[in-house]
Amino acid sequence: MPSLTLLGQAVVSGLLAGGIYGLLALGLSLSWGLLRLVNLAHFALALLGAYLTYQLGTALHVAPWLAMLAIVPAFFVLGMGFHAVFTYFRVTEFTSLLVTFGVAVILESLIQWFWTADYRRYETAYATASIRVGPLFVPTLEMLACLTAAVLALATWAWLRFSYVGKALRASAEDPAIAAAFGVNHRRQAFLLSGVSAAYAGIAGTFIALISTLAPSQIWAWVGVVFAVVIIGGLANPIGALLAGLLIGVSESLTMAVVTPAWAPLVSFSVLILILIARPDRV
Amino acid sequence: MMISLRRLGCRGGLAALALLSFLTTAGAAPSGPPIRIGGTLALTGPLAPTALLHKIAGELYVEELNKGNGLLGRPVEWVLLDDQSKPDLTRSLYEKLITVDKVDLLMGPYATSGILAAMGVAQRYGKVFVHHSFGMPHLAKYEMHFPTAAFGFEPNVTLPTTVFNALAATANPPKTVAILTSKFPSAQFQSNGAREIAEKRGLKVVLYLEYEFGTRDWGALAARVKDAKADFLWVGALGLDGNQLLEAMKKLDYTPPRHFHLFPAPGPLALAPEGKLALSSTVFEEHPPFMSNPSAARLVPLYRERATKANVPYAYVDTQAAGSFAAWQLLEAAVTATKSLDDKALGQWLRANRVDTIIGKLRFDGPNNYGDDLFKVKQVQDGKWVVVWPREFAAPGARLLPP
Amino acid sequence: MSARGRVAAGLLVAGLALGGLATAGLPAFYESFLYIIFSWIALATSWSLLSGYAGYFSFGHGAFFGAGMYTTATLTTALGLPFLATLPVAGVLAAALGAGIGAVVFRVKRLRGELFGLLTLAVGFVLATIVLNTRIDGGPGVYLSAVPLPRLLSSPTGTLYLLGLALALATVAAAYVIAHSRLGLGLYAIHDDEDVAELEGVPTLSYKLIAFALSAGIAGVAGGIHAMYVSYVTVGETFSITVPLYVVLMSVLGGARHWLGPAVGATIIAASLYAFTGGQQAVLGRAAVAFVLILVILLLPEGVVPAALARWRRWRPHPLEIFTTAAVTPAPAAPAVALTCENVWRAFGGIQALRGVSLSVEPGEIVGLVGPNGSGKTTLINVVSGYYAADRGRVVLGAEVLTDRPAHEIAGLGVSRTHQIPRPFAHFTALDNVALAATFGATRLTPGQARAEARDWLEFTGLGRRAAALPHELNLHERKFLELARALAGRPRVILLDEVLSGLNPAEIAGAVRLIQEIRGRGVAVLFVEHLMRAVLELCDRVVVLNEGTVIATGSPHEAMRAERVVEVYLGKAHVVA
Fold first, then answer.
1. What pLDDT is attached to residue B15?
2. Which residues of C touch B214 (CB under 8 A)?
């Protein structure tokens, strides 16, 4: 019978891991829900952000927070650039999968070209630091990532809910023709959103660089679970994405704490399936 | 020239002959149609990080061959294809190399699944199949395959035995063992063996966990290991699993007293702060007595230079690169000895002879062509791997450091 | 030669040529290269049977492929069954898995679109974990090198090549047949508007199940063959993200709705795996291939095959393909019957939309259903047509009870409806929209007969010239009449018209009124929901007035509209003339 401490630690660990899922899922959920574009390249962008953070940190000794300040606007512009191409070619939800897959492969190849396939680790002094809360340990970096995810999710939710731009985007997603009739300049809002989405990828990337070891093919390691998080959380639902991430993270972690760890995906995805079937209107 | 030999007389003639042969071998480049050796590596995909080391080693070796006399006086060409870490692609690429590109000889790919796929092809065409990274000896049933991952036929018995022997020889041998293994086939296979051996030796296995290959969140696992409070942790790890586990445990303020990693990515583990005093296994490290091997003295600095230039973070020769060199050395030795490219002849020669390689003298006359178990125990000390057991192979003055 | 004949001949020739290629003593590499292409053709084409045709994007194709691989692996090694015998088992098991999932998932209306995608993705993960942790694999992988491979040809690769070829041909042939059958027609309709398809008589649940099971079964067989090809089966390789992702990409590239599209896409992408495998350019080569793929899909968004067809048609236009069969007189229309609602109740959460509504419509009678907005008129139509179930009460058509029956059965019994806002199938021409109703309606015609019938109905509603137009090319009036023609094409015995006149100008209204009178003249029972009083008074034999779910008045139009309660409800108490 696992001890309470063990269970508690597993919950903490799961929540924090889930926070990262949520952080990655955020940008994807926004562009899928509001722009009707399934962006596989989101993962590649995040990894690119990670490598850039690594490079700035190791070659130029730039602190990760400063690196993020540089990466975010750069990725914002990059996101808008991608969107320009998508609009020019009238990419639909259907074709976006293939196009963004191609972009992801190109980005992966570029990453491998510059940084080789070998593992890269951005070693920092605080990589293994953690805060003690009673008998439990809360790793600092993961906690920061999770907090960032929460803050961004809340901010995004508020932005979508209360700001003009947010409402305009939601309206356009629901009914583009009518929204346009009411004066919503979908094009401008869409560019803004693509930029934001890509910027979120960059932020996720910085944390990934701090927390994990990097290799080019890692782009594909996240796809399955983050897609699940996006869908279960509800498209364009930032808080839903975060909660879904937390849910998956915790269910995986608790399973690993209690039974043979290799069963973890079974539990988390079975929970998902049950939620979907039993109460789909919650989604 | 013959006329002047006669004139100079026998001794002079011999000297002249010696000088002549020295000039022809040293000065003359290999000539004629190239000998083409075909193979694949995971140049892209999840296995690419380690396959990169094999690429560097192979290119280096072929270049050195061509700087000398090549093979049989002919230049050597390595026809290398990218199998993208996919065994089904590996299989058909080897078929391409054999039936379309019609290469003369084969060099194996990286990692167990790919090697098995390619081995089947080699078997169908009766080609000698040399490889360097196969982890499940009982599955290698082709009589002309030659492994340089010198595990011996029963790695699930011999490797844990070596490790536990090394630990038993320390001042404070462990009494309890925790085993955490990936469900990757070769890792699981050997970790299972570790459990059996541990129990046979009277050690208590307080924890045995199998995790899924591809686990992202290590917190719960780390917590369970910490809870188990074992004296010794065996990590059936592949690649970065060990690093991630150690980092996760550090975040829980726990450092396992002794820890052994099965198939780690050597560079990252040595360079990581948490990797201090980690144990693993190897057939080669860059210190005596390994370095007294003649090929080592030659190949190691060259590899160091190329790896550094290729931006590889850990540029030392270790098991992977050394195993690669050994594989090429097998081909070179067999071809040179039999003076032919006939696979049957090469295969017969390799089975019947022992070959001097950078990792030692290899023989292939055991079950499934496996010979001696050449694996030793190494430890991370001061950011570098050094062999600590058996004593005769330990780095000068090095021993298994306690926690 | 008919189109069907041409396709059959084409497949036969391809099969013989490729089959003969194997005996011509090709280097083994080409056999395995082509085998991989055949395998992907089978996988992508089978995926599109459900996901391309019906639009239910599945991300779990890898699960069925893996199920097949492990079935063969387990049966050959653990039970020693001969390899060929395991293939049908693999197919059947995978099909059963698909049918099982479908049986649960397809019943839940909300689980469409991306939710279905997620579910199938999750199934893949669950299956992988089960296989990894049980004795099916347990971790070490399953080694098949010792399993004897029957030598159909001189080389072992040759055997797999032939098996792969056979599977690919069979799958493409099946895709072609399905695309041109009732099943395919129904699937395409489901893609555009599943609810309307069900209402038009398409048995959506069974069709989706069939398509899903077939799709899964083929993937299972492909997996079984592949197990022998790789000869060492591990969970990591089998259940990776590659299969689920690539089949989607291949189908989208080639054109997911076309029977040949996925095959073309599969060939292009599978072949491109081999381009640039040369050691020195491996990394940049991958980027180059990806770049080319992006260009192709940006320039040809519908997919390669539809784009090629469009170009071909522009160059050599030919008349619409119609599968003509010998002229057969359709079965005589079923005897006219009356529709009766008996005490129908329906609530939505806290809102009681219908409270004990009873009414009847006789054959050859037009009954007007009027009432203020929100009184329950459309809800009643939805209940009668089967879109909603009734909480209490019955709906009876002649001797048949309609309540608790699926909507497509009700449509088959002769109940048709139109929608307030027209809902034509967006990818179908006007002709095909109507033909679909004729195919699945009460009369059960063959596709050829249905098309002829559809032309008649389009002429009847004045849309004859617009037969080849797509719905987005029609204006509102034309779409409303298309809706009407579609409702009529099923030769219904009862037709429910939901505000068919709204949005039409007076001339159009006059035309519609004439049409409806003609319909009545043919003996059909008409329930006519309308706000336009002029038309109600002109057309209806009787009128039923609803308010807040209750019938407050019935009778002749003039009587009912003058009733005190009705005036009060429409105009307010002050206007009631004592």
1. 52
2. 236
Residue A247, domain member (yes or no): no
Closest residue of chain B to C35, computed from CA coordinates: B92
Q: What is the mean pLDDT of residues B47-53?
A: 90
Q: Which chains touch C (3 or more CB pairs under 8 A)?
A: A, B
Q: Does B148 touch chain A if contact means CB atoms closer than 8 Å?
A: no
Average pLDDT of every residue of chain A: 89
pLDDT tier, A260 (very low <50, low <70, confident <90, very high otherwise): confident
More reliable by pLDDT, B24 or A184: A184
End position of a domain, from candidates C244, C273, C305: C244
Instruction: For B116-145, write each residue's pLDDT tens digit.
Output: 999 999 999 999 999 999 989 999 999 999
- From A275's Cα to the closest Cα of chain C, the distance in A is 10
If one counts the domains in chain C, the total is 2
Range of the domain at C439: 339-575
* ipTM value for the complex: 0.86
Cβ-defined contact of A277 to C253 (cutoff 8 Å): no
With CA atoms as reference, the chain A residue closest to C112 would be A280
User: What are the tens digits of pLDDT across the range B149-194?
Assistant: 998 899 999 999 999 999 999 988 999 999 999 988 889 999 999 9
Q: Is C134 on the interface with B (CB under 8 A)?
A: no
Q: Specify if A263 maps to a domain.
A: no
Domain range for A150: 18-224
Give residue-wise pLDDT tens across range C14-26.
888 888 887 777 7
Annotation: CATH topology of B155-282+377-393 = Rossmann fold (3.40.50)
Q: Give every CB contact of residue A77 below 8 A, 6+ residues apart in sequence.
A: A195
Question: Touching check for C237 and chain B: CB below 8 Å?
Answer: yes
Domain count, chain A: 1
Residue C260 lies in a domain: no
| Chain A neighbors (3+ CB pairs < 8 Å) | B, C
Read off the pLDDT of residues A164-177 as tens digits, 9 standing for 90 and up: 888 888 888 888 88
Whether C505 contacts chain B with CB within 8 A: no
Q: Which fold has domain B35-150+289-372?
A: Rossmann fold (3.40.50)
Percent of chain C with pLDDT over 70: 94
* Residues in C touching B93 (Cβ below 8 Å): 277
Q: What pLDDT was estimated at residue A281? A: 57
Minimal Cβ distance to A235: which of C114, C253, C293: C114
Residue contact C279–B80, C-beta within 8 A: yes
| SS3 assignment for chain A | CCCHHHHHHHHHHHHHHHHHHHHHHHHHHHHHHHHCCCCCHHHHHHHHHHHHHHHHHHHCCCCHHHHHHHHHHHHHHHHHHHHHHHHHCCCCHHHHHHHHHHHHHHHHHHHHHHHCCCCECCCCCCCCCEEEECCEEEEHHHHHHHHHHHHHHHHHHHHHHHCHHHHHHHHHHHCHHHHHHCCCCHHHHHHHHHHHHHHHHHHHHHHHHHHCCECHHHHHHCHHHHHHHHHHHCCCCHHHHHHHHHHHHHHHHHHHHHCCHHHHHHHHHHHHHHHHHHCHHHC
Of A17, A127, A213, the CB nearest to B240: A213
Q: Please tell me the number of Cα atoms within 13 Å of A134 on its side-chain side.
A: 7
| pLDDT given for residue C30 in this prediction | 85
Query: Is the pTM of the predicted complex or chain greater than 0.80?
Result: yes
Most confident of A16-30, C310-324, C362-376: A16-30
* Mean pLDDT, residues B84-112 taken together: 92
Q: Do A101 and C249 touch (CB under 8 A)?
A: yes
Average pLDDT, chain C: 87
Is residue C289 a part of any domain in this protein? no
B85 touches chain A (CB under 8 A): yes
